[in-house]
Design a protein that fits this description.
It is built from 8 helices and 9 strands. It has helices spanning 14-27, 59-74, 97-106, 151-156, 170-180, 199-202, 210-229, 233-239, and strands spanning 3-10, 31-39, 52-54, 79-83, 87-89, 110-117, 136-139, 146-150, 184-195. The longest helix is centred in the C-terminal third of the chain and has 20 residues, at 210-229. Strands 1, 2, 3, 4, 5, 6, 7, 8 and 9 form a 9-stranded mixed sheet that branches.
Length: 247
């Protein structure tokens, strides 16, 4: 049976983290291990599901990489499922993870899949919003809201780039690498999640404003990807081998 490391990074959002973990433990029937990273919470107590505690906030990418390193000590996994605390499970499908795992098991060229986002989700990527239907549809890019990646492939590309501190751009680069290798990415219309943007900032838990973080993240992404891919990185990342039917 395929196994999944479910990686959640929590920074001062224990209520949201606990809710995700409780839903996972209640709903998911496939083999998994929860890897909950406390990213130096300094306003409220950590999640009660915490498995790894960091002394200070290393931001999103650093937290995920720490979670992956911790997962390495727990065994070998077939998949990594990255969840953010802005994610909410909906009640339309009881077990969100297992259908995606089964699809990936059956489609070896697929390297990433993501639940469709509910219509009331807030997202920059409109192609991730549900279009209805009852099967996965191929796409060009998946955001890291609830992304499931094939572990051996994800490890082969070097995981996420640590230099993209705030996690802006890591999704673009990961999916660009998949397309270059003619591997496929999917949005699963059978399962859905809701994203509530900036909830931690609204709750005043992030020690910076949402606007400040967006500015830092944009600058960081531009500097890193421009250095690696040139000044036209955005066009490269968003247009390379992107077929109209994937948009």
């Amino acid at each position: 049976m395929s196994s999944t490391a479910i990686i959640i990074v929590n920074y001062n959002m224990p209520e949201r983290t606990d809710a995700l973990c409780e839903e996972i433990n209640k709903r998911v029937k496939s083999d998994y291990r929860l890897v909950v990273v406390d990213n130096g919470s300094d306003i409220v107590n950590p999640s009660r599901f915490t498995g790894l505690s960091l002394e200070k906030n290393v931001q999103t990418t650093g937290g995920w990489l720490a979670g992956l390193d911790h997962a390495d000590t727990l065994g070998k996994f077939d998949y990594y499922w990255f969840l953010i605390t802005s994610t909410e499970f909906t009640s339309d499908v009881y077990d969100i993870l297992t259908p995606m795992v089964e699809f990936m098991d059956a489609n070896k060229e697929a390297v990433g899949i993501h639940p469709a986002l509910t219509g009331d989700s807030t997202t920059h990527w409109a192609h991730m919003i549900t279009r209805g239907g009852d099967e996965p549809r191929r796409t060009w890019m998946i955001d890291n809201i609830a992304s499931l990646y094939r572990a051996d492939w994800f490890n082969s590309i070097g995981r996420f780039d640590r230099d993209m501190t705030y996690a802006w751009g890591i999704d673009l680069e990961t999916c660009y690498k998949a397309r270059v290798q003619n591997r496929s990415l999917w949005i699963d219309e059978r399962v859905r999640v809701k994203k509530v943007t900036n909830i931690g900032y609204t709750m005043d838990r992030m020690n910076m404003s949402a606007g400040d973080r967006s500015m830092r993240a944009s600058q960081n992404m531009t500097e890193v990807l421009q250095h690696k891919y040139g000044s036209n990185f955005w066009q490269l990342m968003t247009e390379h081998e992107v077929k109209p039917e994937w948009k």
